[in-house]
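From the shared-data thread, chain only:
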Amino acid sequence: MLEPKKTKHRKSHKGKRGGKATRLTKVSFGSFGLKSLGACWVTSRQIESARRVMTRYIKRGGKIWIRIFPDKPVTKKGGEIPMGKGKGAVDHYVVVVKPGMIMFEMEGVDEKTAKEAMKLAAYKLPVKCKFVSKH
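Structure, as tokens:
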């Protein structure tokens, strides 16, 4: 699973979710990309699941770039703990995805195969996605 080796602050605030993406909006490395159409938090487990399904579909033929990295800690308290007593321990990490962000890129396979692989990956993600190409 993806997670930062070291962070400046152990816990973070939830933050705002509005606005469109200003970075990661163009296909830079590969020929094809998977673009988000909505805003959400994507966990490291969901990224890994999408990566695995794409890699299996292209039979390890092309190259895949993961353009997002989960660096925001999400905390959780235990089930039987009463209210109060501070913030819980870090449970997992997420990345804040905004509309227009390119999450994955692919190269070295034909467009039909890439489109199908990205479609399978989109099923694993909690946000609506769109297949885009470089041209």
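The domain at 32-75+90-133 is CATH 3.90.1170.10 (Aldehyde Oxidoreductase; domain 3).
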